[in-house]
């Protein structure tokens, strides 16, 4: 069953400090919860719109949906955590991490943070990232890895703001090479 947390306050207008208000539990109408199967269509739309906002090459919606459905194929795996952010019952953001945990591994993988471009600049990406990083820290992750498209400057900025640093070492495994888009993406690492 999905954990649901609702944040309220009597009067708040949307400003750049929304992430701070949200993280303090004071932002009205915003919900952050675990994703459920019924969210898949909305998650796909948010991901597609988010990627299209920085990469016009990502134009074919059918192709995008197929790739994103593959991405969501591990939706119900216990080592995977997908969270959605809703504003007034509409999904506006999604974040995803993978973590097997000790003794199998001590590093986690931040698969992605996607925010609907219509709500950019309100700190929702920051709040989604903070939520996942806190969860990973609580479970003992010692390192978090992420791969980012070089043209996605917003994602790179978000990662740096959360303490990630660029890691130019070669991929440690074939799986990591595949995750890095065959070496086309930039790798960022956060050591906890």
Describe the structure.
This protein is α+β, with helices and mostly antiparallel strands and 192 residues long. It has a single domain (4-144), classed as Aminopeptidase, CATH 3.40.630.30. The chain contains six helices and eight strands. The chain has an eight-stranded mixed sheet. A hairpin with an 8-residue loop joins β4 (90-98) and β5. The chain is globular, with a radius of gyration of 16 Å. The model is unreliable at 1-17 (pLDDT under 50).
Features of this protein?
192 residues; disordered N terminus; eight-stranded mixed sheet; Aminopeptidase; 6 helices; globular; alpha+beta
Number of domains: 1
**Residue-averaged pLDDT, rounded?**
78
**By helix and strand content, what is the structural category?**
alpha+beta
Low-confidence stretches: 1-17
Name of the level-1 CATH class: Alpha Beta
User: If you consult CATH, what is the topology?
Assistant: Aminopeptidase
| Percentage beta strand | 25-35%
Strand order of the largest sheet: 1-2-3-4-5-6-8-7
Biggest sheet features: 8 strands, mixed
End-to-end span in angstroms? Answer: 29 Å
Number of helices: 6
Order of helices and strands: EHEHHEEEHEHEHE
The tally of beta strands, per DSSP, is 8
Share in helix:
25-40%
Task: Describe the structure in brief.
With 192 residues, the protein is α+β, with helices and mostly antiparallel strands. The chain has a single domain (4-144), classed as Aminopeptidase. Helices cover 32% and strands 26% of the residues.
């Amino acid at each position: 069953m999905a954990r649901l947390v609702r944040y309220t306050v009597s009067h708040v207008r949307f400003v750049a400090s929304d992430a701070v208000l949200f993280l303090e539990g004071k932002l009205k109408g915003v919900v952050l919860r675990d994703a459920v199967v019924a969210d898949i269509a909305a998650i796909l739309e948010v991901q597609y719109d988010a990627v299209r906002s920085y990469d016009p090459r990502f134009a074919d919606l059918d192709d995008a949906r197929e790739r994103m459905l593959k991405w969501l194929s591990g939706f119900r795996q216990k080592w995977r955590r997908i969270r959605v952010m809703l504003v007034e019952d509409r999904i506006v953001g999604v974040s995803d991490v993978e973590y097997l945990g000790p003794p199998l591994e001590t590093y986690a993988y931040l698969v992605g943070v996607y925010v609907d471009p219509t709500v950019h600049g309100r700190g929702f990406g920051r709040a989604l990232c903070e939520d996942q990083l806190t969860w990973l820290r609580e479970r003992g992750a010692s390192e978090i890895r992420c791969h980012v498209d070089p043209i996605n400057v917003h994602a790179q900025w978000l990662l740096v703001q959360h303490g990630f640093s660029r890691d130019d070492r070669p991929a440690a495994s074939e799986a990591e090479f595949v995750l890095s888009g065959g070496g086309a993406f930039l790798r960022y690492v956060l050591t906890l």
